[in-house]
Structure formats: structure tokens, C-alpha cells
Amino acid sequence: MSSDPMKASDLRFTLCTEDDDDIICIDQKQSLFSQAFASLNDLRCNGQLCDIVLLMEGRKISAHKVVLAASIPYFRVMFTTEMLEANQTEVVLQELRISAGNVQSIMIGANFLQLDGVAEKCAEYLQTRLHPSNALAIRAFCSALGCRSVVAAADRFVQKHFVSVCR
């Protein structure tokens, strides 16, 4: 929709309605959020405005530090403190140690960066730690990420331990 805003602002008209309920609402926050991340991903995929290259699993992944830092706590610490990586243009991500404290962040990051091997290791980690106190939360988390293997494992776990899960 290309136009001349100055000409459009000079025009006046009346709509043929007297209904006060004739209103539409636009959720700008959600729309802008979705558009911004889609645009950032397009820029990343095209290698535009990227300020960091991640080297992992034999792959080079161009990225935006600000997006990584905003999305993944691990990168926030890496890029906002006096760590060596804060000023580098390439970062080698070596051995990852998955723990209860970081598995969610790592899995989100792995999905975001399409590191399937890392995401699978996180999925395996979560499957072996299903418990009546966390099975539903793990299922919801993995469902949001599209990790079917953990969702299926959680479903089986809940069916097998239904009474304990309900407590």
C-alpha cells in the first residue's frame, strides 16, 4: 500500500455508521513482535547485519549477539560480561554440559540455532528425568518446542504414574 501521507491527511470523510460497537482492535504488540523476529531471522539467514559467527558441530552459524543475548541466558552472560568472547567475531562452542539448571536454555537455543544434535541430547536428558512432580511441565515445554519424542515419553510416564502425577 504505497501512497502520499500528506495528501491522505488532507482528505476528510464520514463513514455511514452510527454503531459505537463498530470497532476493530489490532494487537500491535504481537504483530510487531512476530514481524521483528521474522525479519531478524531473514537477516540472519542472509548473513546481513550479523555480528557473531558460532562454530559448533562442524557448522558456522551467523547470528546477532543482541538476539542471542535476549533469548538465551548463556549468551547474555557471555556477551555482557568481561568474558573473552564478548569482543570476538567468532566463538567456538565446545563441550556443552547439560544440567537441570541449563537444560531449558540450551534446548531453546539449540532449536533456535537448528542444532539438532544438541536438541536431541537435551531431549534424552529430560526423558531420563521425568518425575511425577515435573512430567506435565516437561511435556508442556517440549510441546511448545515441537519435541515429539519427549511429549510421547511424558504421555507414557503420566499414564503409567497417573495417581502420583495427580497428587
Automatic annotation (TrEMBL):
<keyword id="KW-0677">Repeat</keyword>
<dbReference type="InterPro" id="IPR011333">
    <property type="entry name" value="SKP1/BTB/POZ_sf"/>
</dbReference>
<dbReference type="Pfam" id="PF00651">
    <property type="entry name" value="BTB"/>
</dbReference>
<dbReference type="InterPro" id="IPR000210">
    <property type="entry name" value="BTB/POZ_dom"/>
</dbReference>
<feature type="domain" description="BTB">
    <location>
        <begin position="50"/>
        <end position="107"/>
    </location>
</feature>
<protein>
    <submittedName>
        <fullName>BTB domain-containing protein</fullName>
    </submittedName>
</protein>
<keyword id="KW-0880">Kelch repeat</keyword>
